[in-house]
Amino acid sequence: MSDHDHIYSTKFQDSIERNTLLMFILTAVAVAVGGIVEIVPLFYLPNTGMSGGDGTFNGTQHKDTNGNVIPMDKIVWNPATSEHKTMDDWQPGDGVRPHKPLELAGRAVFIREGCFLCHSQMIRPFRDEKDRYGHYSIAEESMYDHTYQWGSKRTGPDIARVGGKYSDEWHRKHLKYPRDVVPESVMPNYFFLENAPVDGDKLAKTMEVMTKMPFNPVPKTIYTDELIAGAKASVEGKTEMDAVIAYLQSLGNHVKFEEGVNYRD
Question: InterPro entries this protein is in (predicted)?
C-alpha cells in the first residue's frame, strides 16, 4: 500500500467512528454547546424584540451621520402617528407594516410551495449585493414575519426588494411558465395556482394567530376585529396566483431609506 492509499487516523478517532452511540453523544454535546453560545448572550440584551402588542416600538436604534437617532416611526408604521391611519391608506415608504389579508394568503402559498428554498429574502451589506438587489435588509423588515424567510441559498435571485420591480402581468407569466420569461430558469411551473381559490376562513384564523404571537405580535390596532372579520370577504373571488403576486409586490418597499443613516446599529 502506498502512502497515498494509507488512511491516517488516531485510535481515539477510530473508536468514535466505530461506536455509533459515542458518535451520537459527542454530536449532541457539540450541538448543545453551539446553541448555548448563540442563545445565552440574548438574555443579557435589554430587548431582543422590535414591537410590543400595544403598537409601541423599541429596541434597535438607527442614527444619522451626526449621531441623531432616527425615530422608529420612520422605520415601522405606527397608525397613531402616521398620516395614513389604515392599512388601505398606507403608502410605500410609510414604514414596515403587517401584510394585508391577500398578501398574507400569498405568503402562506409561498411557504407551502417551498419557494424559500430557492429565493432568499436577506440582502447582505456587501457592495455587490446592494448593486444587484438594492439596500441591504434591516431587522425591522422581518419583524412581522412568522417564520422568517431570510434563507441563504439562492438558486434563484433574492426577492427582498422585488416589490414594484415588475408588473403584475410579468409575475403572472413568470409564475405560470417561468421559461417563457426567463429561458434559463429552473423554476417549476405554477400554472395551477390560477385555478386555486384563496381559503378565506383559514386566512382569518391566521390573522387572529398573528395578533397572539409571543414576540412581535401584530398590534390589534392594525389587525382589528373588523379587519379580521372582513378578511374572507376581501379575498372573495381571488386565486392563489393573485395572492402570491400581491405578496411579491409588497416586498421591500415599506421603508424609505435615507442617505447618511447607519441602519446596521
Answer: Cyt_c-like_dom, Cyt_c-like_dom_sf, Cyt_c_oxidase_monohaem-su/FixO
Cis, peptide link before residue 147, omega less than 30° from 0: yes
Tell me the angle at which helices 200-210 and 101-112 cross, rounded to the nearest 10 degrees.
100
Asked whether 55 and 82 are in contact (CB, 8 A), the reply is no
Amino acid type, 98: P
163 in Cβ contact with 253 (< 8 Å):
yes
**Mean pLDDT value across residues 119-129:** 92
pLDDT of residue 264: 65
106: buried, middle or exposed (CB in 10 Å: 19+, 13-18, 0-12)?
buried
Model confidence, pTM: 0.78
Q: How far apart are CA 211 and CA 98, in angstroms?
A: 10
Q: Distance between CA 169 and CA 164 in Å, rounded? A: 12
The per-residue pLDDT for range 149-189, each reduced to its tens digit, is 888 789 999 999 999 999 999 999 999 999 999 999 999 99
CA 7 to CA 245: how far, in whole Å? Answer: 55
- Distance from the first to the final alpha carbon of the chain: 58
